[in-house]
Amino acid sequence: MGVEAPRIARKVKAGQFLVLRVAEGGERIPLTFSDWSAEEGWIRFIFMRVGKTTHELSHLEVGDSIADVAGPLGQPTHVGDLGRVAVVGGGVGAAVAYSVARAMAEAGDEVTVILGARTADLLVLEEELRALPIKELVVMTDDGSVGRGGLVTAPLKELCESGAIDNAFAVGPAIMMKFCAATTAEFDVPTIVSLNPIMVDGTGMCGACRVTVGGETKFGCVDGPDFDGHAVNFEELLTRQRIYTDDERVADAEYSRGCQCQV
After folding, report:
1. For the chain, how many structural domains are there in total?
2. N or C: less crowded end of the chain, CB within 10 Å?
3. Do 52 and 119 lie in a common domain?
4. CA 36, CA 73: separation in Å to the nearest integer?
5. What pLDDT, in 10s, does the model give residues 250-263?
6. Residue from 95, 132, 116 nearest 15 by CA
7. Is residue 127 part of a domain?
């Protein structure tokens, strides 16, 4: 989805995110920038319909408006002087992987992208990634419907085993990032993960996005979203992410019954 937001577009950098509300009284949700144009004044983000708010968002048409969009938030991803980098993007995490890979390539890093999804119809930004000045794009699907069959950790391990990378960056579902970090840890390859904890205000006030990194409490919104993947307590992160799963399912079901739309 593209949104006209010239003041935000002038400031955003790869790895940062936005927080939006679709309508007054609605919840605030964080989404990462996938693309932007400072010259034309627009920003873009990619989302999957998983709950009430993303359901509402999916019904917006060209010319509609959103109640508010705040950003850019969070710390930009570090690029440059990284040498040979593997950028791993899973699911809608491809949005972050695309902007980060582009920034790294522009900064002179040698980038190999591993793009993964459960099935071919959930794969996004493949063409855009192929258009970047990167070394290689490896496409993986869990069911083998396109590209190689299997998990993104397989080609990541191959790169580590061959000594082909100096650093790694992973973004996607928390469980995917956990196993990417575990894979690179075997080979002492420094790995950054872009975390996606529950978030409310995005400015460090609410504490909802707290994560444990290296035994210390950090806030995903102001300290991150990028952290040392080998130091993140992923079990805690996964547990906290599931807190409102049932509530989200109920809210979406109730909204779906009353919205008169195809669900």
Report:
1. 2
2. C
3. no
4. 14
5. 888 888 887 766 54
6. 95
7. yes
